[in-house]
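ping. complex inputs:
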Amino acid sequence: MTVTLDRPVTAEPITPDALDVVRRARRAPVRHHRRLLAGLVVVLVGAFAARVLLGDFTVTVPDFVRIVGGEQIPGATYIVMESKLPRAVLAVLVGVAFGVGGAVFQTTLRNPLASPDIIGVSLGASAAAVSVIALAGWTGWPVSAAAVVGALAVALAVRAVAGDHGGFRLVLAGIGLAAAMQSVIQYVFTRVDEYDVQLVLRWLTGSVNGVAWQAIGLLALALAVLLPAIGWAARSLRATELGDDTAAGLGVGRGRTDVLMLLGVLLVGVAVAAAGPVAFVAFLSGPIARALNRGRTTLAAAGLVGAVIVLAGDYTGAYAFTDLNLPVGVVTGACGAPFLLWLLARGPLNAHRGRRAA
Amino acid sequence: MMAATVTQHARLEASDLTLGYIDTAVVRDLDLQVPHGRITVIVGANACGKSTLLRGLARLLRPRSGSVLLDGEVIQRLPTRQVARTLGLLPQNPVAPEGVTVADLVGRGRHPHHGPFARWTRADDEAVAEALALTDTLGLADRVVDELSGGQRQRVWIAMALAQGTDLLLLDEPTTYLDVAHQVEMLDLLAELNARRGTTIVMVLHDLNLSARYADHLVALHTGRIVAEGSPREVVTEEVVRTVFGLDNRVIDDPVSHTPLVVPVGRHQPRRLVPSSPASHSRQETR
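pong. complex structure:
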């Protein structure tokens, strides 16, 4: 402590020096965050280019430009436009959605384990989507709507069970519901005639393979609406991060948190409708982005990290093993498990910090 | 019950206020007028409802009946952001987010002054600089809050509440977890804020003697009701302390501040003093 006890309170008008100190101190984290985002964008563009141009069928940059421009190059056009490009674009979109959605959950619930893929929200969306597809034959946006309803139902159920308590009670309730949702998905597959392993894996662990441009466009449209809305609603995080009482003192009621959570659920729902519940992306992105941002919350970086994870996971799944095309969810799931163990081994998860002192 | 010594009009008042968590009333039919521009301290035994009362005054709890009035209006009916520009709150357990710097944390006190699309302005920087200067934490501006000592951290939180720029400041045990030197330092800081800026302060404190020293207006709470209210000299009497804390005691003159000083009479004394007044009915459990 450098503080002396008898020092009088300084009440002189603020000196330009003091203003300078405040400005510099306030801008340093902002600047670091900007640099981080720029770096992540560069990595993302690199990963995107690698996903589209490299692999077992390489495409040169000029060829790629010509193909996207509409020129027909035998073989290459089909592979790029029907496989590589849609996969890469979808990977970026679902990666951003899961990354941001996961960080919204983890931040508002103040618990890194409370991500939508662990507490069953993603699997709830998946169960609803696969049910309406397999049993009712739905396609297009109604599937997204069903997925959103499924995600919302699980989120509300978890909240009803956990009550005001957050923390481990919420995580345990969520893990239970996740298991239930998984069995719903498995049950649905026993009811369909054609049993397709790729399809089962898609709705259990997620895949960006074989998705039509139309579905990708639908997801892009949903993100174009949801991401700015989350950016706007997340401003209240600056207050809600300080605990419920402090936030209320700053004029931010719990309603603001609920709006943000609702948007996060919608985001996860539409992403699951497009690519299935890509395992652990939502769970991994937030803590990685936070670590890169010196421990500070950042939804934007979480989204970019999510996109890079899905791109890299899809690339690995597609080309790491010859003759074996693994869905991205299998790869991210394999990476997520050790990370989960590491997070648990690291000790207390700060899950109870900031809980309302009743 | 003693008469309240309220001379000026009160901006914040409780009227027939009953507060409680599900089914159990913690504060019952309570009337309180917070003297304007003064330091009001709420004291009482554990679980007497003092924190609940403070949370109620800060509109964190919805009254079961009765009301809290801010400038004559029912506080729950006012827009919460508008209340936040008049009334600041430092709760007992605020959470410093991981990695947050002092300047950033204090800046968050400006939240109620920002509309839905407003940007950070020079006035915000000035408010933060002033709050840091007042709490003597300017030198810590770029430090991470997690790394500070308990005393420094508490000053930073007070700076955040100051940056909010409110005339009324409610604090729930601002000296918890601080050693006695830092408790005094913290209370000196608040007293100086009150003297220089005329900020009305309402706080819950555990230490009766420090309360008597720093309070202009003391409120003694017992099982959710006000037992005594007024200047420390009126409130801190052997009788009241016995009622509120169930503690045999002597009240003497504080040689430094000449406010009442409570000396507890425990069981481990060389000789047992007989209480001067019959108090068997008012002996309360102190946990």
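DSSP finds 14 helices and no strands in chain A.
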